[in-house]
Amino acid sequence: MTRASSSKRALMRIKCREALSAHICKLQSHHVSQFTANLFVDERLGLTIAPAQVQLQPFPSDGYSWSATGTSATLLEKNISSGNIWFYKSICQELGRSLEAVPVQVLKGTGKDKIQDCVTRSGSSSFTETILQLEIAISRLNEELSYAREQLSQSQAENCRLDQALTRSGNELESSTFENSNLRNELLRSETSIIKAMQALEGTAVKTATESQEDLQMED
After folding, report:
1. How far is CA 219 from the centre of its chain?
2. Is 168 part of a structural domain of the chain?
3. Ranges 24-28, 86-90, 143-147: which has the least confidence
4. Theoretical Cys-Cys bridge with 128: which of 10, 67, 146, 213, CB 3.0 to 4.6 Å?
5. Coiled-coil regions in this chain (predicted)?
6. Rounded distance, CA 8 to CA 157, Å?
């Protein structure tokens, strides 16, 4: 690597660190000493960070983390000190677009806690917040869909139970109708038999009365 190229790389590394610090921090309006002149106060995170102290892979104790989408996630796999010019330019280009700083607890939280932690003091939003809001919306939709499916399953089970009850009632009605028809036929047969029996008795009674009258006449 030539001296000019090395110098350009070093300059881009410095600009990259400054851009990272500027992204998450605000330059203090009052400086106590020369040492604090390059320190930045993070409006969202409440941290004091110097460009030389910014890391792409910070520790949880540092109080901040990086959120990236798409291919920008690969930018977080390297250390700033080991990057090349393209690497530094890519970071500067993607800051605020697909790469941003967030409180360390944001990416560890869930649900509403994520959104609450992601909202900045200034009230501005970020793509991380938007993604988390979408995740929550999708989660709620999935819960509603699951509930709707459960309700549908219960309704289908109830409909099945009602259909079975209706089928049983229909079968019972059909059976009762058949039994009633049999009873009606049996009753008609009984009535016919009774009528025939009564007619036979009447015939016998008439015949007996006639014979008795004839016997009396013969005796006279």
Report:
1. 113
2. no
3. 24-28
4. 67
5. 131-158
6. 73
Give the pLDDT confidence score for residue 125 in this predicted structure.
Answer: 59
Structural domain contains residue 161: no
pTM reported for the whole predicted model: 0.52
Count CA within 13 A, CB hemisphere, residue 23. 26
Neighbours of 53 (CB within 10 A): 15
Residue 51: give the domain boundaries.
3-125
Residue with tokens 């941290």: 47
